[in-house]
Amino acid sequence: MEESKVEMTYCVTGATGYIGSWLVKSLLQRGCRVHATVRDPAKCLHLLSLAGGDERLMLFKADLHHEGSFDEAVKGCDGVFHVAASMEFSVPEKENVGNYVRSRIVDPAIKGTLNLLNACLNAKSVKRVVLTSSISTMTAKDDAGNWLPIVDESCRTPIDRVWNTKPNGWVYVLTKLLTEEAAFQFAKEKGIDLVSVITTTVAGPFLTPMVPLSVQVLLSPITGVKMSSKQAQITTKQGSRALALSKYSSSILE
Ligand SMILES: NC(=O)c1ccc[n+]([C@@H]2O[C@H](COP(=O)([O-])OP(=O)(O)OC[C@H]3O[C@@H](n4cnc5c(N)ncnc54)[C@H](OP(=O)(O)O)[C@@H]3O)[C@@H](O)[C@H]2O)c1
């Protein structure tokens, strides 16, 4: 892939996170201008020291839970990488778990993503939005429980199955599936070019000051910390490059 010649501008949400910070770095390395959104300015010092950051990186305070929060960040952007996601999925022992999950976790997540898409719509400059989906939304089994020979984007776990069986990490999977569904519906109605990258679990060197959750998961067999997630052998750098260079997002980077 050729390095971009024209200086394009991309917004990266969740830039303080594990994937987000690598994505910011990758885009700066490619000569792009980056509008990085962060919730807490104190957590983004590592971004400011990135090569090219002094000239081509702008930081914006934005929260998915605040309406209109992304308006300034996406203004003038050619593309938006939506990486931010709340990773808080604890559900208290309650009778009506379904209602709790829907109202306290899924609905705010959907609202936040639609809030961002709305900002993209109003900006008028955004040509494509890239969502960060997860391998955990995929299934390798058919309805009868048989293993599939190939798993691709058609193998999404049915939402009903997640609600009914509540497998390990089900709240995360459900939130991802329903947010994606709502985002694609909104994009279709409003004419937004939206694509979703199915990201595997990533691990490797990190730019964040804290050990990222997915690295903790992959190290858990060694550390003994009990965690749950599907594991895949891919480095963070590859993961962020995959996002930046995937066939879906590449056209906006050309
Ligand atoms: N890491 C993986 O292996 C993996 C695999 C598949 C998919 N993904 C997806 O990739 C994305 C990034 O994952 P990650 O591992 O990089 O996670 P991460 O390190 O926890 O980063 C999450 C980012 O989202 C931000 N965020 C959380 N709640 C927010 C809110 N209400 N408003 C605005 N920003 C908010 C966080 O900001 P703060 O720093 O302020 O908390 C942080 O910057 C997520 O969508 C995740 O589902 C990750």
TrEMBL record:
Claim: Isomerase is one of the keywords in the record: no
Give, as in the UniProt entry, the pathway in which the protein acts: Pigment biosynthesis; anthocyanin biosynthesis
Catalytic activity field: a (2R,3S,4S)-leucoanthocyanidin + NADP(+) = a (2R,3R)-dihydroflavonol + NADPH + H(+); (2S)-flavan-4-ol + NADP(+) = (2S)-flavanone + NADPH + H(+)
Annotated ranges, domain NAD-dependent epimerase/dehydratase: 11-206
Role according to the record = Bifunctional enzyme involved in flavonoid metabolism.
**Which species is listed as the source?**
Escallonia rubra
Q: Tell me the GO BP annotations in alphabetical order.
A: flavonoid biosynthetic process
| Molecular function in Gene Ontology | dihydroflavanol 4-reductase activity; flavanone 4-reductase activity
Which top-rank group of organisms is this from?
Answer: Eukaryota
Enzyme Commission (EC) number: 1.1.1.219, 1.1.1.234
Q: Show the stretches that span the lipid bilayer.
A: none
UniProt keyword list: Flavonoid biosynthesis, NADP, Oxidoreductase
User: What family does the entry list?
Assistant: Belongs to the NAD(P)-dependent epimerase/dehydratase family. Dihydroflavonol-4-reductase subfamily.
Q: What is this protein called?
A: Dihydroflavonol 4-reductase
One Pfam family linked to the record: Epimerase
